[in-house]
Amino acid sequence: MDLSIKLTKKELVTAFRTREILAAAQRVMELRGVETATMEEITAAAGVAKGTVYLYFQSKEDLVQAIISHVCETLLRDLAAIVESSGSPPENLRAIVALLIKHLERERVWFPIYARDSLRVDWGEKGRPRPHILDLEEKFVALLTRFFAEGSDTGTFIQADPRLLAFLLRGLVRAVGYYQMLGKREDIVQETLPVLVTLLSSGLRRQPEATEAPAT
Predict the structure, then answer these.
(1) For the chain, which terminal residue's Cβ has fewer other Cβ atoms within 10 angstroms, N or C?
(2) pLDDT tens, 174-198?
């Protein structure tokens, strides 16, 4: 938040109350399950009247979408910090993979809903996914595209379409998410992280050109 912008008392109260409700909703849903948690449990955890919650969020689905947006925006900030860091492309690649895989483990409750919303084409009157999901996806892909383009420009990574590489990485991470969701394996992150790092590092690194052997 830009501290140079002065907020009114009402705006400050609204922002504070919204954060309180979202934090309570996230705790309850992660403990009880998104489908099982009720608005009554959420309002009790937030310490407010049920009517107060509906002043900020019209339904539990609105709460879910707000939480997912917050989770994804946090991931984008962390990803941007790595992409903009001074680390070498191989170092940053390892950091990016670790971030994405650990994010899946930490936010495993929300991945099925995010996957549902980002893939559905029949949402809403016009049969399109929610716009905020598309915006978050595009920002995510744009950051990865920038990273791969810079890696190619420095001669570290192979010459390939950087946006294609971004989609390939996104697809690999999503595959881990689906496997985690369907397999219910608690150790999937520990097993996946070194495999993905090795796979991507060996596949993306540009190999030195072979030199001709001297004539004898």
Answers:
(1) C
(2) 999 888 888 766 677 778 889 999 9
Instruction: Look at residue 205 and give its three-state secondary structure.
Output: strand
Fold of the CATH domain 9-58: Arc Repressor Mutant, subunit A (1.10.10)
Q: Show the tokens assigned to 30.
A: 């992660």
The arrangement of secondary structure in 59-204, i.e. its CATH architecture, is: Orthogonal Bundle (1.10)
pTM reported for the whole predicted model: 0.82
Query: pLDDT tens-digit profile of 60-100?
Result: 999 998 999 899 999 999 999 999 999 999 999 999 999 99
Q: Can you spell out the DSSP letters for 127-186?
A: T---HHHHHHHHHHHHHHHHHHHHHHHTTSB-SS-HHHHHHHHHHHHHHHHHHHHHH--T
Q: Where are the domains of the chain?
A: 9-58, 59-204
